[in-house]
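Narrative progress, year one. The postdoctoral researcher (J.K.) led the effort to move from monomer predictions toward full complexes, under supervision of the PI. The following entry was the first complex the group processed end to end, covering 172 residues in total.
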Amino acid sequence: MIGVMTLPASLSDSASLSAPSAVCEVRNSSIHGQGVFALCAITPGERIIEYTGERVSWEETCRRNEEKGGPINHTFFFSLDDGMLIDGGAGGNESRWINHACEPNCEAVEEDGRVFIHALHPIAPGEELKYNYGLIYEARHTAAVKRAFACFCGAPTCSGTMLAPKRGKKGR
Ligand SMILES: [Zn+2]
């Protein structure tokens, strides 16, 4: 090769330049479709990533679900305490690919209308990030709904569903 300059090792490391501070990345998951995996060791309580996306109302969420053909996309919506939702499918980042698990190593924390994924336990590089979605689904938990929200986390305590148990009048 002609004209190729030899750079010092510290400058030629383009891999580290392309992803300067990433602590996680999206890969295929054994739980479901794609998942998010730690790229480095993460300590309990550490903030890993913000759950970003467009803020939408409940009505708009329902409209978008219908448009996309069913409740499966529901898992891209994160409900906030004030009744609004974050649509991770609209302008969201890698966080929308974090899978649900019944024995999670992360938790979602809401702060002033923003949502952050924090580590619950020490996480090793290469480990998949997971949190408990605790999805509230007010409509009847029919067989189709149960199928759409089935959990495949593989934990001995797996409840088989991403849906939180119905809780009387609490929530919506
Ligand atoms: Zn499970």
